[in-house]
């Protein structure tokens, strides 16, 4: 059975091999084709799709696809593309691409129906009833979200990508159909205006092209790149294309000579190999010219050969044979068979110096490796009938798709989720070893923090140091291929916001942000409870029980979700504790008077908040004055930041207190504060030999540690030093200053504020 039997479609658009194409009659088009060129004849043919699917699907599956076509054809009745073609030609073309990958019948049905929900208002339920739940789920994953639900187009677009990628994580066929959809749109991009052409091309280059590479769809990846290049930089594309054609003619003799020599050398070594030539893509050449600041004439390796053999050992034998024929370029050999790329790509790469000094790249791979290299994860369907084992590729793909779900669970914002996914779509990778000898693939520029989170979330959250190739190194060190990495953990260690400045993987970034958000929330809840306790004490009423129904009424009345959210808002300064406490107070005049006094925070009898110094993000020591235990202090509730502790005489605090007196509360230091608070000292010293050594010795003798030392002035007879030191208290700082005075070259010491 084939598509030639589809006679009952509502519109009569059934162009098949036996009958030939028929014209489609449609309603007048509301948006006519551009006037610059004549609209193409409104003909769509199923001949190509008919030929492909008849070769690998059975009659029952073809009948199901026929029903999907009829439904889609009727749904898109009267709809035309910008080129003037009937809209149904687009789903047919997308389905042809998917059929070329030999996707199953459900996938081809979803490809035919992929726009009916978005464009024609067909419900997911209706699709499920007619074609099954699996088809409906795929189509729903391909459907954009309603634009009216979002404030901006960027927000809507980010949420659409999020939905599509999460649907892809559940079923990889979603992204395969989406990539086929985007490929056909890029092939027909000339029909739209230049501005939209560039916008669609940039979006494709930024999102869909890296996904195609990540899934190993290299043939699709290269075509999308070149089409995006042509749309974004049409003039550069034309110039580079002409240069490429000229270079092809100039080097034809050299390439032919190399091909003849290779085809003679391999059989002489007992190898039955298929040798084919290939050119670098135009975008690949352009990117190399930009990154390496080269002209086209300086890019020599624009042509290469692919050698396909039968077995894995023959790859290495063919490599050795050609290394004897031509001299290899040092440092240009890469073994992607022993260590596959992150997308499953396997091949041997080497660059040889051919006749006349022309460098030529060679790739050696088996037939199975070639299938995976060109079609990636799609080769699971394309070659599964041949018994090809793709367990490793499927495993890598599953791990990456699972990481999308992990990132989703840690991320609440669509834009942030898309940012993490973009970070994860690096085309280049480094390969590092765990202490057990396992190989991990990480994006280029990754650090030991990325490595730690790739091992396990708990390893990343408690990382405190690392060893690279047996030597201690900072956590921000960039990793290189071949590095052996060991992460040292501590139960007391916690993720730092500074890590976000140098992590490269989406998983590490989302895990760090998730931890910091949770930690901030928990600290804010605990500190909000302390502030609320103080407010209840001032009102002389008991703290309400956790199950008090007033909490729920208060939450509903103020837009909060729960008791803990109210406490977190108090801790973050979004609510005033006195106002919340008053909602629980009995109605009487005495308490109302007390509440008014509390609101102004002028009562001298109010109990101060005790500062321990280790409260975390809920309590911050103001950088403008850098208070230390022993200093007189005051606390200001800053919206979204919690409590900020200033010195009582801090000018910044005085100005803010004058503007918002209700947000300031009395605070005192705990008798046992946390150690390792930092402060900055400004030293005027005679610039003599050994002065820094003596300063370091004296500071160490005073049981302190230097965090940072800078000298902003140029070297002269007198220098100004800024030293950041760790101290326990104001008293400890005085000891450090006395120790520094023992250095005779020190002329002046000032505790810097701000």
Describe this structure in words.
- This protein folds into five domains: 1-32 and 44-143, Hypothetical protein af1432, CATH 1.10.3210.10; 145-232 and 392-421, no CATH class; 238-389, Beta Polymerase, domain 2; 515-669, no CATH class; 677-752, ACT domain (Alpha-Beta Plaits, 2-Layer Sandwich).
- 47% of the residues lie in helices and 15% in strands.
- The chain is built from 29 helices and 20 strands.
- Strands 1, 2, 3, 4, 5 and 6 form a six-stranded mixed sheet that branches. A five-stranded mixed sheet has the order 12-16-14-15-13, with helices on both faces. It has a four-stranded antiparallel sheet with strand order 18-19-17-20.
- It is globular.
- 36% of the residues are buried.
- InterPro entries: ACT-like_dom_sf (IPR045865), ACT_dom (IPR002912), Beta-grasp_dom_sf (IPR012675), HD/PDEase_dom (IPR003607), HD_domain (IPR006674), NT_sf (IPR043519), RelA/Spo_fam (IPR004811), RelA/SpoT_AH_RIS (IPR045600).
Descriptive key words:
754 residues; alpha+beta; Hypothetical protein af1432; Beta Polymerase, domain 2; 5 domains; 6-stranded mixed β-sheet; 5-stranded mixed β-sheet; 47% helix; disordered N terminus; GTP diphosphokinase activity; transferase
Overall strand count: 20
The percent of residues in helical segments reads 40-55%
Taking Cα atoms only, what radius of gyration do you get, to the nearest Å? 34 Å
What is the beta-strand fraction? 5-15%
Note the main sheet. 6 strands, mixed
End-to-end separation in angstroms reads 82 Å
């Amino acid at each position: 059975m084939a598509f030639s039997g589809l006679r009952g479609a509502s519109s009569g658009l059934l162009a098949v091999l036996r009958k030939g194409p028929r014209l489609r009659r449609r309603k007048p088009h509301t948006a006519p084709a551009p006037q610059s060129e004549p609209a193409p004849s409104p003909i769509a043919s199923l001949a190509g799709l008919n030929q492909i699917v008849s070769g690998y699907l059975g009659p029952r599956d073809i009948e199901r696809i026929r029903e999907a076509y009829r439904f889609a054809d009727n749904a898109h009745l009267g709809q035309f593309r910008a080129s003037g073609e009937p809209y149904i030609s687009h789903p047919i073309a997308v389905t042809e691409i998917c059929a070329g990958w030999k996707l199953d019948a459900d996938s081809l049905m979803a490809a035919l129906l992929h726009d009916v929900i978005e464009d024609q208002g067909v419900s997911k339920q209706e699709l499920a009833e007619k074609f099954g739940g699996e088809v409906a789920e795929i189509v729903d994953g391909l459907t954009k979200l309603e634009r009216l639900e979002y404030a901006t187009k960027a927000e809507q677009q980010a949420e659409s990508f999020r939905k599509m990628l999460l649907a892809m994580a559940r079923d990889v066929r979603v992204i395969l159909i989406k990539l086929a959809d985007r490929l056909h749109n890029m092939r027909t991009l000339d029909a739209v205006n230049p501005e939209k052409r560039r916008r669609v091309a940039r979006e494709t280059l930024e999102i869909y092209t890296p996904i195609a590479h990540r899934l190993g769809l290299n043939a699709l990846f290269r075509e999308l790149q070149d089409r995006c290049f042509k749309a974004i930089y049409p003039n550069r594309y034309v110039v580079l294309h002409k240069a490429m054609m000229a270079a092809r003619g100039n080097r034809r003799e050299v390439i032919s000579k190399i091909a003849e020599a290779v085809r003679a050398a391999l059989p002489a070594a007992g190898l039955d190999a298929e040798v084919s030539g290939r050119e670098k893509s135009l975008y690949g050449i352009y990117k190399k010219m930009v990154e390496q600041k080269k002209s086209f004439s300086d890019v020599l390796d624009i042509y290469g050969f692919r050698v396909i053999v039968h077995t894995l050992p023959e790859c290495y034998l063919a490599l050795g044979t050609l290394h004897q024929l031509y001299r290899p370029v040092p440092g240009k050999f890469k073994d992607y068979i022993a260590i596959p790329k992150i997308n499953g790509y396997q091949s041997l790469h080497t660059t040889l110096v051919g006749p006349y000094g022309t460098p030529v790249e060679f790739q050696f791979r088996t037939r199975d490796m070639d299938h995976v290299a060109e079609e990636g994860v799609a080769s699971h369907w394309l070659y599964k009938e041949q018994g090809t084992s793709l367990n490793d590729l499927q495993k890598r793909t599953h791990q990456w798709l699972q990481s999308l779900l992990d990132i989703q669970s840690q991320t609440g914002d669509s834009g942030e989720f898309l940012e993490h996914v973009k970070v994860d779509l690096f085309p280049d990778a480094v390969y590092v070893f765990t202490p057990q000898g396992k190989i991990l693939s990480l994006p280029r520029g990754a650090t030991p923090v990325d490595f730690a989170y790739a091992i396990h979330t708990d390893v990343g959250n408690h990382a405190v140091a690392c060893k690279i190739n047996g030597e201690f190194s900072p956590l921000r060190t960039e990793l290189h291929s071949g590095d052996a990495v060991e992460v040292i953990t501590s139960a007391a260690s916690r993720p730092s916001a500074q890590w976000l400045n140098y992590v490269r993987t989406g998983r590490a970034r989302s895990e760090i942000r998730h931890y910091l958000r949770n930690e901030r929330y928990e600290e804010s809840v605990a500190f909000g409870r302390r502030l609320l306790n103080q407010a209840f004490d001032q009102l002389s009423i008991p703290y309400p029980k956790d199950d008090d129904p007033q909490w729920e009424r208060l939450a509903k009345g103020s837009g909060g979700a729960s008791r803990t959210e109210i406490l977190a808002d108090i801790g973050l300064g979004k609510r005033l504790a006195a106002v919340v406490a008053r909602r629980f107070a009995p109605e009487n005049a005495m308490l109302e008077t007390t509440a008014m006094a509390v609101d102004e925070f002028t009562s001298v009898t109010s109990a101060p908040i005790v500062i321990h110094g280790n409260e975390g993000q809920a309590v911050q020591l103001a950088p403008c004055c850098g208070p230390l235990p022993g200093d007189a202090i005051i606390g200001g509730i800053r919206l979204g930041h919690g409590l900020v502790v200033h010195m009582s005489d801090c000018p910044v605090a005085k100005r803010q207190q004058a503007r918002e007196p209700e947000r300031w509360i009395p605070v005192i230091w705990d008798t046992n504060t946390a150690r390792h608070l930092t402060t900055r000292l400004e030293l005027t010293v005679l610039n003599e030999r050994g002065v820094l050594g003596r300063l370091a010795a004296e500071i160490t003798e005073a049981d302190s540690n230097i965090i940072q030392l800078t000298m902003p002035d140029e070297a002269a007879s007198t220098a100004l030093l800024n030293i950041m030191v760790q101290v326990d208290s104001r008293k400890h700082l005085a000891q450090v200053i006395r120790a520094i005075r023992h250095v005779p070259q020190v002329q002046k010491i000032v505790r810097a504020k701000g």
